[in-house]
Amino acid sequence: MGKQIKNGQKMFPQNSLTLSEIKAAQPKAKTYKLAAGGGLYLAIAPNGGKYWRLKYRFGGKEKTLALGVYPAVTYPDALAAREQAKALLKKGSDPSQIKREAAKLKQKPASQKTSFRMALTQVGWLTIETETKILSLSPAQTNALKAFLAANPDGGTNDFNK
C-alpha cells in the first residue's frame, strides 16, 4: 500500500495501485474499480476495457472526469492528469468544463480557429486583431516582421524545433 497522508482527521492512500495490479486486473460480470488514491481509479469493464477516471467535487456536486483508456494512457500519465485536474480545482475551475471547451475548439473548422484581421496604416503601423487580443507593431517592428517572413517562407516554424 502507498504512503498515508493525513488530511484533517482522514487518512487516505496516495498512489496505492501498482503496475502489476493493473496488468493482472481481469474483467468481471460488472464494472469494478481499482483505487489509485486522490480520487483516481481504474474502472475495469466486463468487456475487458480499463478506463482511467477521476472522481472529484465541484460546486457541491460529485463529478467524474474520464482521463483515457489503459494502456494508451499509462499509470504515470493518469497520475499527471490527476494533478493537473486538482490544480484546476484549486484555481476554481471545473476540469470537465475545461475538457468540453477544448473538445469544442478541436471541432471548429480551421477558418474559425485562425480568424483575425490585419490593418497596415500609411505610416507603417501594423495592427493585428483576434477575438481576444489586439497587437500593434511599430513601423520598425513591421519592417522586421516583413524581413523575417521574406527570409522564412515557411513562417519560421522550423525554428521552434531546434
Number of helices: 5
Could you say which overall geometry the principal axes of the C-alpha atoms support?
A: elongated
What is the CATH top level name of the largest domain?
A: Alpha Beta
Radius of gyration, in Å, reads 24 Å
Strand content: 25-35%
The proportion of residues forming helix, as a percent range, comes to 25-40%
How confident overall, as mean pLDDT?
A: 80
> What is the CATH-assigned architecture of the largest domain?
2-Layer Sandwich
Q: What does the largest sheet look like? A: 4 strands, antiparallel
CATH topology name of the largest domain: Double Stranded RNA Binding Domain
Structural class: alpha+beta
SSE succession: EEHEEEEHHHEEEH
Tell me the strand order in the biggest sheet.
Answer: 3-4-5-6
Can you give a write-up of this model?
The chain is α+β, with helices and mostly antiparallel strands. The protein has two domains: 4-107, Double Stranded RNA Binding Domain, CATH 3.30.160; 116-155, no CATH class. Helix content is 32%, strand content 31%. It contains five helices and nine strands. Strands 3-4-5-6 form a four-stranded antiparallel beta sheet, covered by helices on one side. The protein has a three-stranded antiparallel beta sheet with strand order 7-8-9. The protein has a two-stranded antiparallel ribbon with strand order 1-2. Strand 1 (4-7) and strand 2 form a beta hairpin. The chain is elongated. The two termini are 43 Å apart.
